[in-house]
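Page 47, continued from p. 46.
Same chain as before, 512 aa.
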Amino acid sequence: MQSSLGSPTAPSIVFFFLIVGLTLVVTYWAARRTKTSSEFYAAGRSVSALQNGFALAGDYMSAASFLGISGMVALQGYDGMIYATGWLVGWPALMFLVAEPLRNLGKFTFADVVAFRLRQRPVRIAAAVGGILTVLFYTIAQMVGSGQLINLMFGIPYEWAEIIVGSVMLAYVLFGGMLATTWVQIIKAVLLLIGVTVLTILVMAKFGWSPANLYSAVTAKYGQGALQPGGFVSSPLEAVSLGLALMFGLLGLPHILMRFYTVPDAKAARKSVLYATGLIGYFYIIIPIVGFGAAVLVGRDVVNQISPGGNMAAPLLGELLGGQAFLGFISAVAFATILAVVAGLTLAGASAFSHDIYVSVIKRGRASEEDQLKVARAATIVFGVFAIALGIIFKGQNVAFMVGLAFAIAASANFPALLMSIVWKKFTTHGAVWSILVGAFSSLAMIVLSPTVWVGIFKFKAAIFPMKNPAIFSMSLAFAVGILVSLATPEKEAQEKFEEEKVRTYLGVGAE
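Result:
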């Protein structure tokens, strides 16, 4: 097929500027209402459960979900669906295990919860390290997706595309804080669900409204192997490790956990997860249809030629079925998707430094509102520059796969310490610190030594660590270290405070 991707078209430009303009208007409106640190980090706790449900869905349905999964299904077949399933099944666990305790115990970041009955400084420093590493890896995927998208939409060089995306995203966060980020995510969630629904309807219309016809066409073109596991995840251990990362990584993602502080109370936090699960479930059920539709109608060769990682499969399918106008809409929605998620990630990264390190560790909780906002905005700029640089370095990677690595770090660094701090009375400061650091750095080391980075990016002949997904090892190691170190260094004060923590966890007495 002949595609207009790579040269600007009138519909692309119109939709692009409409969506960017709309989100900047929202940012201006939010900036006038963002005066305190609570408004900057948590939108003044004024977001309703339904609004937060849409914002959570917007935060989670990232470039990896839309561009990455559809591309992976198009090129790899069945295995791409593991990502869709894995990213969905974490939500019930989030609702029943973490949402309520998090809202009742914390203030702005998940480190508030881990440090609630432990010694503040060491735990917050370790939690900030785990949080920032997770957010950076997650950001890489979004920036790679955005660079490819702008590069193909307008023919702008990839590196300049990265700088443009980074600059617009910084405008959202610097001026509008969490309120602007929330509304940008709500707008983007609605547009994305509409776009993917229309794309799915157009695909199903081509195959007589029968999924069986679509899958028969896939089999006829690529053989039965396209509908069987083993195309991308070749070993059972690799599949289990990936599944663990995708499920439990959600419970350690700082930008998702941060959203629970924007609602008034724990009941609203639970309800917002319920709404988000419904929206996300619907999205992940239909996105594989888009991927298989692209494989049959566009063809793997064309997808590979235009975008080696497969990230442009959905926009190419949109152009084939709906013409240049629909391509413009789908591309603009994908761009809004990336901007909203990167804004949320940047806010989470900045808050990990400004709230956990600057306010709680350096200033020991005695920083003025003005100082807190200044440091938060400075941290935002630093994080934005890092995001742009990493997006340029990791050019060409599949974005769903890159986010899978971020989930592995989140599942190893953040989730074990968060869970043990809520449910285990004997958990100690040393246990928390070592669990977070060992989880973070072991998962990072395994990723660097894996085929993805060691062979794919550094170009060595063979990988030192053979698996692409390290979560099964690094997460188990984080739990084991947390338990063993806590048993070796009992902390009487932390155990005494556990009963107080339990009352606040379940009743919300004293929650902000």
